[in-house]
Amino acid sequence: xxxxxxxxxxxxxxxxxxxxxxxxxxxxxxxxxxxxxxxxxxxxxxxxxxxxxxxxxxxxxxxxxxxxxxxxxxxxxxxxxxxxxxxxxxxxxxxxxxxxxxxxxxxxxxxxxxxxxxxxxxxxxxxxxxxxxxxxxxxxxxxxxxxxxxxxxxxxxxxxxxxxxxxxxxxxxxxxxxxxxxxxxxxxxxxxxxxxxxxxxxxxxxxxxxxxxxxxxxxxxxxxxxxxxxxxxxxxxxxxxxxxxxxxxxxxxxxxxxxxxxxxxxxxxxxxxxxxxxxxxxxxxxxxxxxxxxxxxxxxxxxxxxxxxxxxxxxxxxxxxxxxxxxxxxxxxxxxxxxxxxxxxxxxxxxxxxxxxxxxxxxxxxxxxxxxxxxxxxxxxxxxxxxxxxxxxxxxxxxxxxxxxxxxxxxxxxxxxxxxxxxxxxxxxxxxxxxxxxxxxxxxxxxxxxxxxxxxxxxxxxxxxxxxxxxxxxxxxxxxxxxxxxxxxxxxxxxxxxxxxxxxxxxxxxxxxxx
Amino acid sequence: xxxxxxxxxxxxxxxxxxxxxxxxxxxxxxxxxxxxxxxxxxxxxxxxxxxxxxxxxxxxxxxxxxxxxxxxxxxxxxxxxxxxxxxxxxxxxxxxxxxxxxxxxxxxxxxxxxxxxxxxxxxxxxxxxxxxxxxxxxxxxxxxxxxxxxxxxxxxxxxxxxxxxxxxxxxxxxxxxxxxxxxxxxxxxxxxxxxxxxxxxxxxxxxxxxxxxxxxxxxxxxxxxxxxxxxxxxxxxxxxxxxxxxxxxxxxxxxxxxxxxxxxxxxxxxxxxxxxxxxxxxxxxxxxxxxxxxxxxxxxxxxxxxxxxxxxxxxxxxxxxxxxxxxxxxxxxxxxxxxxxxxxxxxxx
Lengths: 515, 349
What we know:
Number of helices of chain B: 15
Number of strands of chain A: 19
Oligomer: heterodimer
Shape of chain A: elongated
CATH superfamily of the largest domain in chain A: P-loop containing nucleotide triphosphate hydrolases
Strand content of chain A: 15-25%
CATH architecture of the largest domain in chain A: 3-Layer(aba) Sandwich
């Protein structure tokens, strides 16, 4: 008699349901596991035999056991399949009455004495089950805390193989743990930093607000010490709250990366990643042997990727950003597997005007040669610069006490966040019928539909594009940014002032090139 | 005086090697010719170099360059007076005649936006006044001076530190063509094919100041190449004008020092025309467009004008407006071509 038990394996960004099939034959005694198991799965045959015998059950010692992991064409990894394989052998020999195995997945690692041990990385497995419509799972009791945040799932915690077996046969009942959305989702008190610590720089703060509201990519440029990094590092304090689904998604990706929350449970905050400039291409886009692991761009999915000193990054690393910036996902092809990870992130770049940082400054002499200047400027290629919607050149602070004493109140993170949340809400409402949700994703037809201009705004748009040499693509960016500015200011339509302000954040480097 | 003159490698060698001994060597040269000087062994010679100069002659003929020697009438009169004039000047385009009023505009390559702006305006004023602006076609101030002169419809001459042909390969191809189209010239004492070696530039600078009546220094750091040029100009007895700058600015230290040492300060870019006795004419842009500004725009315009170069933050506290309002007005001013924004700072165009 062939038996089937459901389980799942990791595959790229999610998990695949697999069916563990078992059958017994007369022949040379032994187990063969087929369906592309890797070493960790293949060596579980020793554990299976010991665990079943030590649980006081019959092990078919005189039979040939075939276990097939279906679909047989994908590679299977992980010791969490032990329990499913053991149960499939046992139901083969002992017979099973319950039919529940159809909607029930089994996850767990076995030890030789038949106890069910903790599995690492169980969260992405269970999130994957939920996404694929399986609502019940038998899981190790030690793992329950980690996964109880998954809403709509019923978990049956087990401590031993025997317990799981009896439960499947309906001989004993286990109290289901029902997954619940955690109550405390966002904790404002936690922030150590605040934007009020950045003195002045209200324009830069405004640009950050615009960027975060519309999910626009942003490039800062300015001399050392003008506060680029300081501002970018505080961006996590103004990121809007994640929805529950987004939290699950982010947590899943981090688990794949091997990051486990200390307390167990979900990641509440939007990711903020700041890779250093010597990051390799594999660390950036993902890679590694076996199943490629997610890289920085996937880890910043739904959050912010901050690249400080952007021109110092290796050229191939920079160019590898082109696909994810365009498609919001990254495909990694390796000999073993081809995997697509999500990578919808907001890119914030920061750069100096030249290698020494003081080009064009009257405070300090620039030490760079013209050749250095040119090569530094060329390090960010045109296609990469084209992906940015917002550009801001920041001037150095004027030194001296006379400039520090201003009455201007410094904007705080809380004020900024409030405006951003409001602007996001407007977008959510406007794009509820669409596939996208941010102004930065407007293009082609949707751009025309949502960014229509009144007479006055159209006039200034045309005048600006003509006399300030804004390209066609630049014009599209302008409209997207103006849309976000209008949303921030609470306007239904895009007014002339919004276009005028957006024009200040255009790409200017062509004008800045020396004669 | 030689009328018919065909260039050969010995002539090139003579011009390149004579250096500051030129005045001693000329009598010998007139007697025995360039080959004779070479054979006499008065100056150090090198067979290898001769090979190089043979190539220079080939390039000279192929590129259809022109040359003028110390003995020609077309050779700049003022340049003949200096201590060590080059024997041959290679050039493309048409040389300024001896009736033209030549004025050098020099400044730092790493000019600040202020320096670039000043170079442009000075070039513009001189160009509109009918003077020939002489500079070095380097990035920064030099290029701005040339461009300013061309914008005003004037003629301009670029003196290079490389062979005249080499400039065709470097960065400023566009400017090179524009200078020639504008009726100016690009010249060099270095034979075609000679690369831009660092010790060529100070030598080049003596020609810039040597062929001009006056030298305007827009911006210079202390102990910079520009300061050297100013020093050469003084040695040659030329008038040196310097544009004063912010005392906090490193790039104005050199010019302010020049003024302290006796250079004539230029209190406006146009005043150089007055000094040289030319008809002064202001840049049009600043004159005509200002009329059509609204009250808010005028306020911002005046604030920018007052400080010369100002950041957005300062502009906000100056005018009491929010950065959003200021940004909107700036866009209008940018569209009207009155204000420009560079490296986060605003200045008048």
